[in-house]
Design a protein that fits this description.
It is a single chain. The chain is an alpha+beta fold. It has a domain of 237 residues: Metallo-dependent phosphatases (Purple Acid Phosphatase, chain A, domain 2), CATH 3.60.21.10. It has six helices and 26 strands. The strands form six sheets. An eight-stranded mixed sheet has the order 1-23-19-22-18-17-16-15, with no helix packed on it. It starts with a helix and ends in a 12-residue tail after the last strand. The N terminus is likely disordered. It catalyses: a phosphate monoester + H2O = an alcohol + phosphate. Pfam families: Metallophos, Metallophos_C, Pur_ac_phosph_N. Its EC number is 3.1.3.2. GO terms for molecular function: acid phosphatase activity; metal ion binding. This is Purple acid phosphatase.
């Protein structure tokens, strides 16, 4: 590590030691958001507007196309006719005529009850250079639209990177506030912890709400990769409607780089971005012993190289630690199955959603408990992750404001508000985490924040404040 980076790490550590008192009680925030309805924006809202031009590509979004970040998968929908599945791309000019590279994608569509999707295109751009900005365009033969993205930097131990953290977003007026505030805070990629459109809350799982949601988030996800986690609102399993294929809309619309990660399903996978190794788990796919997800995670944790990607981050939808009455203990069976693995691997952060409020834990674990010994209370464990619940994106189901009392010892901060978070990795030892509530405005100070120290490089340092 260079002299400047070493000096930066020492400054961070000094700031931590100066700011940290000896003991920290958990905080249940006294802040109360305004009492107002949580309602979906109407279909004619400007954030749902259709692009102009015949058969213009809409709902454009990107995600990583491989595990190391040298490929990007572009997805979009054409409504009137199939059109072209080709994407042109290049580094020099936003003019599609000057883009020297091209890739041909695939096309699909699906039906759900009384709905038939538009023509859904997926095209993976390969051979990308780490850290480079690319322009890309699609819609050839009808209406061409152009966008751009910056490839994440090459994985390495001291590569800085800023993630946005969003969950349970939906498409309400509060959702729009969340996305606007995130855009102002300037992350370079989003770790999304599940529950996208909430289309299934409407009669017949109105899939038009999948279309409107994708147009709504295009302003961000067409320009930077979002990494997808499946939540319960992606299941869309409705045998009473004749729909018996789980995750049908999601799997047609949102590809993941699971094959590059050796996964058999798109719901669990991993990627390497800058100095982070990110593992995505599926709360609503089988994870019992010897199941494909169980086997894959066991193998994946052995592949993590903390010398190259020191920050180990895990995403899931249903939280393992949750002191809210809503969805209480729903993640317990997965916790019992996998928590000891994550503690042994010294995972730094576990992100979850599902509970529509915000909560951050201290470094605690409950790995000693078994059916005989009765040790059922989580205890302080510096090898354990920090657990963060960010199911507070703004969805139509509203805020979960039923926190249990007293606040458990493992809970550091909790609040019933909508918002988003960021995780800014500085180097191999330090990362700055911050949570922003929507009602504070985009540029206000974080409502909750903490400097995190890496479990591999600083395993005995307590960052639990």
């Amino acid at each position: 590590m260079g002299t400047a980076r070493r000096r930066l790490g020492l400054l961070f550590l000094a700031a931590l030691m100066a700011a940290a008192p000896g003991t920290h009680a958990g905080i249940t925030s006294a802040y109360r958001r305004k009492l107002e309805a949580t309602a979906d924006m109407p279909f004619d809202a400007d954030v749902f507007r259709l692009p102009t031009g015949y058969n213009a590509p809409q709902q454009v979004h990107i995600t990583l196309g491989d595990q190391a970040g040298t490929a990007m998968t572009v997805s979009w929908v054409t409504a009137s006719e199939p059109g072209s599945s080709t994407v042109r791309y290049g580094r020099g000019s936003p003019d599609p005529r000057k883009m020297k590279l091209s890739a041909r994608g695939t096309r699909t569509r699906y039906s759900y009850v009384n709905y038939t999707s538009g023509f859904i295109h997926h095209c993976t751009l390969t051979g990308l250079k780490h850290g480079a900005k690319y322009y890309y365009a699609m819609g050839f033969g009808h209406t061409v639209r152009s966008f751009s993205f910056t490839v994440p930097p090459k994985p390495g131990p001291d590569v800085p990177f800023k993630f946005g953290l969003i969950g349970d977003l939906g498409q309400t007026f509060d959702s729009n506030s969340t996305l606007s505030h995130y855009e102002s805070n300037g992350g370079a990629a989003v770790l999304f912890v599940g529950d996208l459109s909430y289309a299934d809350t409407y009669p017949l799982h109105d899939n038009r709400r999948w279309d409107s949601w994708a147009r709504f988030v295009e302003r961000s996800v067409a320009y930077q990769p979002w990494l997808w986690t499946t939540g319960n609102h992606e299941l869309d399993y409705a045998p009473e409607l004749g729909e018996t294929t789980p995750f049908k809309p999601f799997t047609h619309r949102y590809p993941t780089p699971h094959r590059a990660a050796g996964s058999t399903e798109p719901f669990w996978y991993s990627v390497k971005i800058a100095s982070a190794h990110v593992i995505v788990l599926a709360s609503y796919s089988a994870y019992g012993k010897y199941t494909p997800q169980w086997t894959w995670l066991q193998d994946e944790l052995k592949k993590v190289d903390r010398e190259v990607t020191p920050w180990l981050v895990v995403l899931m939808h249903s939280p393992w630690y949750n002191s809210n009455g809503y969805h209480y203990m729903e993640g317990e069976t997965m916790r019992v199955q996998f928590e000891s693995w994550l503690v042994d691997a010294k995972v730094d952060v576990v992100l979850a959603g599902h509970v529509h409020s915000y909560e951050r834990s201290k470094r605690f674990s409950n790995v000693e408990y078994d059916i005989v010994n009765g040790k059922a209370t989580p205890v302080k464990n510096l090898h354990a992750p920090v657990y963060i619940n960010i199911g507070d994106g703004g969805n139509i189901e509203g805020i979960a404001n039923n926190f249990t009392k007293p606040q458990p010892a493992y809970s550091a901060f909790r609040e019933a508000s909508f918002g988003h978070a960021t995780l800014e990795i500085m180097n191999r030892t330090h990362a700055y985490y911050a949570w922003h509530r929507n009602h504070d405005g985009a540029m206000a100070a974080a409502a909750d924040s903490v400097w995190l120290t890496n479990r591999y490089w600083m395993p005995t340092h307590d960052d639990s404040i």
